[in-house]
């Protein structure tokens, strides 16, 4: 048996219109943690999907234990002891933990000697043992849909262990976790390495690579840039290689200049369709020139707060005041005209109309009033000149300029268009929900600069983000939400990310 | 009064087997509006085989019926391949495919019934004349007041259907294939990642769906109509789909709903007779199951949990 457990040689993979992997070669040693670093679309996930048998490469070869293999499906890959935790978990929502883990290889018994049936008791027992052995605490009979993401991830890891995987691929495993959960996961990965497993970690976060990985391959636009020993490479070097130019990792934040109170939310409660209170008695206020950030694990009510302020969901009780006007009962349009801009979480569903042109999307906040329309007739010229202006100033890139269908644009440019449209209103309050989710470092830099510029202008900013690092970098004041309640509100300087992480899990009470 | 139970059950059972078929298809992630077409096509194949083999058996032989049932299952199972081909292989819109399958079934069976009649009997008629199924009464149980009606004048196919339903409940809930099938309808990506074959699982489920609907169809032909004609398309396929929905895609509750539908239908009919209304009014009473459907829909639809991935074509390449 040679030194390398996995060798991928000169792999090329094309999708219509794009080369996802261009002559990429990586060799992975048994028992190491090997990281694949790159931005969105760099080809990391595609490369690993081929190792896991989900795609077949157009060129090149894959060797496992020095033997050439051809995988037609993930079943073939699993037979060679390869397992993968996907970024979007592949779990059946209304099945139990155990049912998900054993799916396809259930322990079978025969009733009356001939009737085959699945023995879930035995499966539950086996999973309890496995979970104890690796410190991955789960209850085999819990339903997946009732579990938080961190537990679902444990289920995915157990699924690999149950299938006796020796090579484990993790695709962006920390994207959805709190700092404490990340620590826990990295410990688990370290434990797996000590147990002799080979770990491949797909990520775009340099800090994690620094903490856990032995070696790191950097990919950019489908090409392999370099393979480095992590110990000998600085975070800055990794970032520069990943992006292809020197990157400014820390944003400069000017001194805060707070003004009058712009937004006052008091006793806000929002119920969902099952009459469950997703937001409970939340009160806070934002001054002009202040970035108020809400930190929390996904699904704890933060999106609903934003929607309630923007007028998109009904408020069960409480009030929302903009400057001195009570807008609790105002319509979305009334609020917008009163001075609220909203960059929603669901970019493609709520932020833009995918099948409209960029030009029309940029005019969505203005089309109904002069000079964009007069007596109900749209003014084409104004639409065009306004779009050209925004495209130039916000650096929105697209195939055919203002006429481009938004659907064909990249996520980063769709987001730039939304931000351009909303910021251009010069609103008193701007709500950013997950403004940089899924975007490249370049685009993230750009958007954060825009947020800080609005703060300088004197806007009150509500920032809702799942990225703790983003909150700590931008916020003046942090509110931590847990199960719909603001557990803690404090100036950002008085909190560490560790503190915030503990509040996010509801561990620490204010 | 007992007649309400007797007729109710004999109507509910074919409905149930069709609903179970629909559940199989939908639980695997293929929306199935084609039940009506499946049952009609299955009934046609069953009736055709029955007419062809009848001369070789003594008059009134029940064996013909069982052979016709098997033929109906096979015929409708094969016809269902068309739905599978459109929905799974070509990833067509599943609702439209279902409607097309239904319309096609009416057209094909009407045409071939006339053609077959001409070839076999020389007369052109749009009916394939069948015998009537024998009936039996369960001694003892039939004496129970009220519900004894369930056990009187039973068709043998009612027992066959009960056994089949039990078997298919077991297959769905206790076996490896069943677990795979239900997972396919919730999250096919998970099945693929776990090494299952989504397409194959769905193909089998849709074919099962066809076969069971075909059995339902031939049972209607033998009990309600005593012939096969285009009048077999009475909308009972849609009623089976409604039963599946109120039964929340679960076989047990669906069985109960089918029974309620059956009792509503026979009850309405008996009521009509008891009130000595002219027969033209009976149509009004036969609407009862459908009105019940509307009412149930208002109250129960919100709490249902349809299979999450039903209606979505499975595309392996998509992430």
Question: Please, could you describe this protein's structure?
Answer:
The complex is a heterodimer of chains A (510) and B (319). Chain A has 510 residues and is α/β, with parallel strands linked by helices. In chain A, 33% of the residues lie in helices and 28% in strands. Chain A folds into 3 domains: 4-243, P-loop containing nucleotide triphosphate hydrolases (Rossmann fold); 258-339 and 425-510, P-loop containing nucleotide triphosphate hydrolases (Rossmann fold, 3-Layer(aba) Sandwich), CATH 3.40.50.300; 353-424, no CATH class. A 6-stranded mixed β-sheet of chain A has the order 6-9-10-3-11-12, sandwiched between helices. Chain A is globular, with a radius of gyration of 25 Å. Chain B has 319 residues and is mostly helical. A two-stranded antiparallel sheet of chain B has the order 1-2. Chain B is globular, with a radius of gyration of 20 Å.
Produce the secondary structure layout.
The complex is a heterodimer of chains A (510) and B (319).
Chain A: E1 4-15, E2 18-29, E3 33-37, H1 44-51, E4 59-64, E5 67-69, H2 74-79, E6 82-85, H3 97-102, E7 108-111, E8 115-118, H4 120-134, H5 149-162, E9 167-171, H6 179-194, E10 198-203, H7 206-212, E11 215-220, E12 223-229, H8 235-243, E13 261-271, E14 277-287, E15 291-295, H9 302-310, E16 317-322, E17 325-326, H10 332-339, E18 340-343, H11 347-351, H12 358-362, E19 373-374, E20 377-378, H13 380-393, H14 411-423, E21 429-433, H15 441-457, E22 460-465, H16 468-474, E23 477-482, E24 485-491, H17 497-504
Parallel strand pairs in A: 3-10, 3-11, 6-9, 9-10, 15-22, 15-23, 18-21, 21-22
Antiparallel strand pairs in A: 1-2, 1-4, 4-5, 7-8, 11-12, 13-14, 13-16, 16-17, 19-20, 23-24
Chain B: H1 2-27, H2 35-53, H3 63-89, H4 94-121, E1 128-129, H5 156-174, H6 176-186, H7 188-193, H8 198-225, E2 227-228, H9 236-246, H10 251-274, H11 282-286, H12 288-300
Antiparallel strand pairs in B: 1-2
Helix pairs in contact in B: 1-5, 1-8, 1-9, 1-10, 2-3, 2-4, 2-8, 2-9, 3-4, 3-8, 5-6, 6-8, 9-10, 9-12, 10-12
